[in-house]
Amino acid sequence: MKQYTSIAVAFLVLAGCGGPPHPPGYSNIVVTLDPASKKPTVGFGTQTPTIYVFFDLGDIKDGQKIKSVWYCEKSRQAPPNYKIDEVTLPLKAGQDSGSFSCSKPDKGWPSGRYRVELYLDDQLKDTEKFLVQ
Predict the structure, then answer these.
(1) Pairwise pLDDT comparison (18 vs 127), residue with the higher score
(2) How far is it, in rounded angstroms, from Cα 23 to Cα 57?
(3) pTM for this predicted structure
(4) Would 1 be classed as within a structural domain?
């Protein structure tokens, strides 16, 4: 099975936004195939070019790191809980949103169950699951 490629998408820094700060970590997480609308997607096709995960961040300190780890949990073409890819990125104080993405392998996504784990400073903060059919 070909190793998947994960692409870290540029973080958005929204300076001066009002409202109370989020608690430390991730919130408003969306898994989608459409980076423009960020409309949530539960099931993806085997030829989906890229799967994105967008999120808000709360109470971030300069030098903290976020990480995404992508897994194929169950598929006939891969062993159980097959680790697809992992990306760690540094944060800057005030950074309040971001995204990760994972690109389609050359032969397409194997049909099955997937998950992406989101970490803050190596501590698991959230797990998002999705299907490829």
Answers:
(1) 127
(2) 8
(3) 0.81
(4) no
